[in-house]
Specification:
22-stranded antiparallel β-barrel, about 5% helix, mainly beta, 6 helices, single chain, 5-stranded mixed β-sheet, Maltoporin, Chain A
Length: about 750
């Protein structure tokens, strides 16, 4: 058997059930399984891409510091952005591209209108491990242009019901009374001898005022319409029931509910030098809402005639409500029109997104020993049905209601060429049938810079009819890679893989005709001739953006050391940028490159140190002439260099201390040929967590931003190129116990 030493932030994390267990590196088999990598159980050593598996022990460590899955990934995963500290995933990228988020293999994104919030709302209390595979992939469909993260939920242990309670109180030290909030999570699980098992988790948390490092209250909507991290209530419910029909066959069903409701107190000032609440302007809109439900049913049969069979059916019901925003030139220069020039913002200038998405996935893992000893073919097909629309609060559509049917087939062959060399390669073909309904885009009020007393010229964009129809497009994607075991302690890996991103079709039709070419004076808002009052969706001609990933790395360990080093390149020939003047998607080449390193060293049986670091940068074709002439904007790469370094020590009596430092570089890159630059400041912060066994459980005390540093949040800042300050010092006091 092959054994490697494994770190808490590298390839695998071994769960330690006792709080008093020493944090030393543990020896485990490299042949542990990763279902994310290939839609079938595979050893990590067979995957020719960077793979991280974060286990339950490290998840519980992260829960002491912050309940957000986004915040956990930002510390543990090199290549992932600094968390923007809100419910939104705006500008949170992985290797400068999109990260596809899965819950037990089910995608939670909304590709027809890409407004992802779900990462920050996943309840880590219900998660047993986190699997992340770097690089473009299409094995789960669209969206994994940077990588794929799969949150694997808890499995019940044999025996009577076990109850785990995790209670915590968090607050900002700037004003504890105004910011103190509770969190409570309860998990009940068990497995009967007759093969029936269950897991139930319920979690509730709140947010009140938030403060930066010098005690200033932070705004509720710093990123203009994305929502924030204050004055909210959120709840998660997860339930899973399973039954082992026999030793090979199992049926399992689960339900997950993500709920979030934010009630902003004030509007936000988006003028320089930084985003801040307007304390004399109460927020007039409805609350910011997330109501997502995901249901799945899975059947597995390891004795299927053709190998191992997995059938998965799922349904996602998603409802999102965004912030109410008002006209404010130049920061919010376009709003839906009230037809009152003195108060141009419509009282309904707040949107809601509704998306229903269901699918069936069939995966068969077939051994090919008769052809080649150890060879396996993973193959199958997917069917996905989705329907998406977005409305103002009065029910008026803001983009064309969309329906799409996706069918796909794939095959992935793995061949052990020698005892040390394993080669993997495959193809997936995706076909999209899109139905676009006719709709009337609401009238808008907009402004551009001009030499007037106000500094701008306002105009009206009259209601515009968008003609839909039926459209189809397709995308084949490929992957090829290999792993080579150098010895019992290290291996090389590398290869080529492709993934794709669907055009944000909803965003395009929402912005159809939003340019001066379709404008009227405020005094004559219906000036357009009949020929200029409509556009056709046919002109948009959507196509998938194919992303190519190339990666080469080494991973392994010897004695007390465990680490990995990888270099990567990511390219794409076609972009997904919409031009509202021509109502077309433009082509923009992109080239991203970087390197990532992870390491851990056990100094003694009681003390360990470790960390991760990444460098990533990218260029693109800003004027669409085929040349890479500018650096990618900050909303793709805000901090080229990032690192997290930590150390832990186990004292007598089971008391454990962990210190952690985070640092990121600034950026001042020219993002177009005009020479525009939007500087991002560097930052350094420290965190600490202390825990001790008490009464059969674990008490913990954690401090984030230990020095209460005043930091600009690089990810939030890059959304609108306006400085958004990070959270100041927060403290958490909690207790976890299993009965």
């Amino acid at each position: 058997m092959r054994y490697l030493f494994v770190s808490t932030t590298a390839l695998l994390v071994v769960t330690a059930p006792a709080a008093a267990q020493a944090p030393s590196i543990q020896a485990v088999e490299l042949d542990q399984l990763s279902v994310t990598a290939a839609r079938a159980e595979r050893s990590v050593s067979d995957i020719p891409q960077s793979v991280q598996i974060v286990g339950r022990q490290e998840i519980e460590q992260q829960l002491k510091q912050n309940s957000s899955a986004s915040a956990a990934l930002s510390r543990l995963v090199p290549g992932f952005s600094v968390s923007n500290q809100s419910v939104s995933g705006a500008s949170e990228t992985y290797r400068g591209r999109d990260l596809l988020v899965l819950l037990d293999g089910v995608p939670l994104n909304t590709p027809l209108r890409d407004v992802n919030r779900i990462l920050a709302l996943i309840d880590l209390n219900s998660v047993d491990r986190i699997e992340l595979v770097a690089g473009a992939s299409s094995l789960y469909g669209a969206g994994a242009t940077g990588g794929t993260v799969n949150f694997i939920t808890k499995q019940a242990e044999p025996g009577p019901p076990r109850v785990t309670v995790n209670a915590a109180t968090r607050a900002f030290t700037s004003d504890i009374a105004a910011s103190i909030v509770p969190e409570l999570s309860t998990t009940v699980s068990g497995r009967n001898p007759d093969g029936f098992d269950y897991v139930f988790t319920g979690t509730g948390r709140m947010g009140r005022r938030t403060y930066d490092g010098i005690g200033r209250e932070l705004p509720s909507d710093a990123m203009l319409g994305q929502g924030g991290g204050d004055r909210f209530g959120s709840g998660n419910v997860f339930a899973k029931l399973g039954y082992d029909i026999d030793a090979a066959k199992r049926i399992e069903g689960s339900f997950a509910w993500f709920s979030f409701n934010q009630d902003p107190r004030y509007l936000t000032n988006y003028s320089a030098p930084y985003a801040r609440p307007i304390l004399n302007q109460p927020y007039p809109g409805l609350s910011i809402l997330e109501d997502t439900k995901s249901l799945q049913l899975r059947y597995t049969d390891r004795d299927f005639a053709l190998g191992s069979l997995s059938l998965l059916g799922y349904y996602n019901s998603i409802e999102k409500r965004f912030n109410f925003t008002t006209f404010s030139y130049p920061y919010n220069s376009q709003v839906y029109y009230s037809f009152d020039p003195l108060r141009p913002t419509s009282p309904n200038n707040q949107t809601m997104l509704f998306s229903d998405r269901g699918g069936i996935n069939a995966t068969i893992d077939t051994p090919l020993d008769d052809v080649w000893a150890g060879a396996r073919l993973t193959w199958g097909a997917d069917l996905i049905l989705e329907k998406t629309n977005q409305t103002l609060t009065n029910g008026q559509n803001v983009f064309t209601p969309l329906q799409q049917t996706t069918t796909a087939a794939f095959g992935l062959l793995q061949v052990p060429v020698t005892e040390s060399l394993t080669v993997r390669g495959g193809v997936r073909y995706e076909y999209f049938a899109l139905n676009v309904e006719d709709f009337l885009r609401p009238a808008a009020y907009a402004a551009v810079a001009a030499r007037t007393p106000l500094g701008y010229q306002a105009f009206v964009l009259p209601a515009l009819r968008v003609t839909g129809g039926d459209f189809d497009y397709s995308a084949p994607t490929f992957n090829l890679g290999a792993t080579y075991r150098l010895d019992q302690a290290a291996e090389l890996y590398g290869g080529f893989s492709q993934g794709f991103a669907l055009p944000d079709v909803g965003a395009y039709t929402r912005r159809a005709g939003l340019s001066t070419a379709f404008a009227c004076p405020v005094a004559n808002p219906n000036c357009l001739p009949a020929a200029r009052r409509s556009v056709t969706f046919q002109s948009i001609a959507p196509e998938a953006q194919i992303v190519n990933s190339y990666e080469l790395g080494i991973r392994g360990g010897n004695g007390p050391f465990r680490g990995s080093l990888a270099g990567f390149i990511s390219t794409s020939e076609r972009g997904v940028t919409f031009d509202p003047i021509t109502n077309t998607i433009s082509q923009q080449k992109e080239f991203i490159y970087g390197t990532e390193v992870i390491g851990q060293y056990a100094l003694t049986e009681r003390a360990s140190v470790g960390g991760n670091a990444t460098y990533r940068e990218g260029r693109y074709d800003s004027n669409k002439d085929g040349r890479l002439d500018s650096w990618l904007p900050n909303n793709r790469i805000a901090t080229p260099f990032r690192t997290t370094i930590w150390g832990s020590y186990l004292f007598d009596g089971g008391v454990s201390l962990r210190l952690e430092g985070e640092a990121w570089s600034g950026r001042d890159a020219r993002i177009d040929l005009v020479g525009n630059r939007y500087g991002i400041k560097p930052g350094v912060t420290m965190n600490a967590a202390l825990s001790a066994p008490i009464d059969g459980g674990e008490a913990y005390f954690a401090v984030n931003n230990l020095l209460d540093a005043q930091l600009v949040n690089p990810t939030a800042t890059s959304v609108r190129n306006l400085a958004v300050y990070s959270w100041g010092r927060t403290v958490t006091l909690g207790y976890r116990k299993t009965f």
